Amino acid sequence: MRQFVSMEEAFEDIAKYASQCLIKTSTMPLPDAVGQVLAAPAIAQLSIPLFDNSARDGVVLSSAGIDAAKRGATITLAGEVRAGDSNETAHGLSGMAARIMTGAPLPDWGAAVVMIEDIEFKDDTSFVVKAMPDNGAWIRPKGSDITAGAVILKPGRQIIPEHLQALASSGVVEVTVHVRPQVGICSTGEELVDIALGPPGSGQIYDSNRPFMSAVMKSFGCDVAVNEHVGDTLDQMVNFLKRAMEASLDLVISSGAVSMGSYDFVKPALEAIGAQIVFHKVKQKPGKPLLFAILPNGTLYFGLPGNPVSTVVNCRFYVHYALSVMQQQPSEVSIKLPLEVGIEKPKGIAIFLKARCKRTQNGALVCALEGQESFQTQPLLEMNGWIVMSERQGSTQSGESVDFYPLNPGGLADIF
């Protein structure tokens, strides 16, 4: 077991072990896969558009029709093509012009489409063109959006509802994804009261970490299969760990009982069941007592400090990173933004600061909020991201760039 590792060393250790615990995969219908991470490339089965079609309601002209229109001639319609008509119907029309609807297949002689507002009809079947189109105007060529056989979504991408438009249109009816990671969570401490059980008594507080951990794991695409509160005894923690192993989980997270107090029993409980403690304590603020271990059955375990912001930080960065590695996702990249106000910071410790990014006339700026102590949750209501500074960095001045991470992994701060 290593103690007081750097932030970078902690991420390296997590990557080493998480890469050996890849989440299993499954092939499922596309609509059921939203929120899950692709494990194999999604390949277009069809081109988009599937055939040359019109981008507007109007009239399709042949090359000869364009020449006639340039001369101001009255042109006769050969017929009409509607959305839903077959390609054979469109190609079967003979002439130099035809009415056409948006999305309708283009006759093989079609050279341009004239919008309906640029046409003056003389009667039901003849017209003149008021505004000349360029060759190819308002035509959507086959495959101009997506080509059949192309990789349209790479492994590691989490499927969101907007992806379904391109995937479904190109004939991707099922995808291979990592199944939802199964996680277990527990909060520790006799002083905690479940928020559903009424107000806390004297010396007690509401258990806020457990509902947070449950919610954030679900936002990461996980299923919370085990959700418990554990009292301040070694036996209760050992029994929780045994139940977690019996549940065949991918990841287990606890909050509290990882520091140096008389009732901080997570480390002894892990040792009692034969777990491998990889590291304990990271040179960072908040969340220094973070513990990372491997349970005897290979399940990853994170012991998070009990202060609420410590739990938030370690879930947002370390637990999310482990899940990303287990699902072969690319590493998250920070946004470089200038500081509105300088930050005083000693070297030798990494810091995670509650921050807010805001738009100004000169571009985006980021500032650290008031209330950075790990018990202070009010700034969580105002922040839209985190400033992260490594132990190698010292104090920074106004205007200097810092690493900014949006509140939600993979997303942008609401200012953007």
Brief rundown of the structure:
The protein is of the alpha/beta class and 416 residues long.
Please characterize this protein's 3D structure.
The protein has 416 residues and is α/β, with parallel strands linked by helices. The chain has 4 domains: 2-24 and 180-326, Molybdenum Cofactor Biosythetic Enzyme, Chain A (3-Layer(aba) Sandwich), CATH 3.40.980.10; 25-48 and 144-178, Molybdopterin biosynthesis moea protein, domain 2; 53-140, Molybdopterin biosynthesis moea protein, domain 3 (Molybdopterin biosynthesis moeA protein, domain 3, Beta Complex); 335-406, MoeA, C-terminal, domain IV (Beta-clip, Beta Barrel), CATH 2.40.340. 20% of the residues lie in helices and 29% in strands. The chain contains 8 helices and 29 strands. The protein has helices spanning 7-18, 63-70, 87-91, 163-169, 209-219, 234-246, 266-272, 308-326; strands at residues 2-5, 25-29, 37-38, 42-43, 53-54, 58-61, 75-76, 80-81, 97-100, 112-115, 119-121, 126-129, 139-140, 151-153, 174-178, 182-188, 192-193, 205-206, 223-230, 251-255, 276-282, 284-285, 291-294, 300-304, 335-338, 350-360, 363-368, 385-389, 401-406. The strands form 8 sheets. It has a 7-stranded mixed beta sheet with strand order 1-21-23-24-20-16-19, with helices on both faces. Strands 22, 25, 26, 27, 28 and 29 form a 6-stranded mixed beta sheet that branches. The chain has a 4-stranded mixed beta sheet with strand order 8-9-6-10. Helix 1 packs across helix 8, helix 5 (209-219) runs parallel beside helix 8 and helix 6 packs across helix 7 (266-272). The mean pLDDT is 95.
